[in-house]
Amino acid sequence: MGKSALPAQRARDAAVPHRRARHRGQSLVEFAVVLPVMLAIGGVLIDAARLYQVWTTLEAATRDAAQYLATSSDDPYSPDYTWAGEDADNKAAYIISAATAYPVVRSASADSLASCEVPQVTTSYTQNTTDASGGTVANPASTATVTVCIPFRTLFGYPFLTTNGAFLLRTERTMTVLVGR
Question: CA nearest 103: which of 119, 114, 121?
Fold first, then answer.
């Protein structure tokens, strides 16, 4: 009985390293299949987090720029006075650039964004003294609209989702206040 069990035990011991090698090969193939999928999921999560952070920062900066323009002084001789057009665009571009760290420039076309190849801003700024707007001569209703467009570069170019590897983030904020109140 003892002698017959000995050769069977040796046969099993000899087969074990062969089985382990097969399992190691199978694990390597599984790892090679799963690794690109896991890296892709990680990349999507990182891009989504970056996109959300830039979007919320851009929204806040656009709101701040609209608020600054709408609450500027109603005295044309004051350094805080905002003139409609280039002056308003430059002030908004400065505020948004400082908040987002993107070099935002004034749009070449007034009151519209033709393309979004570079970060750009345009504004619409008016002061109204009519009763219909709620303003008076002493306290005009100042309305500022700020529109911003930023091309956001992703880590990976997602087919069907990006334009030349970039998401186009565009936001617009309008604020109306009674100046001097």
Answer: 119
pLDDT at 74: 63
Walk along the chain (181 residues) in steps of 10 and give the mean pLDDT of each run: 60 60 75 91 91 93 89 71 78 90 82 79 81 74 88 82 80 85 67
How many CA atoms are closer than 13 Å to the CA of 158, on its beta-carbon side? 16
DSSP-assigned beta bridge partners for residue 144: 125, 175
Tokens of 27: 């694990």
Distinct helix (H) and strand (E) counts, the chain? 2, 4
120-134 as b/e, with b when 16 or more CB fall inside 10 Å?
bbbbbbebeeeeebe
Domain positions in the chain: 2-178
Hey, what amino acid is at 141? A
In the chain, DSSP assigns E strands to 105-106, 120-128, 141-153, 166-178
pLDDT score of 143: 86
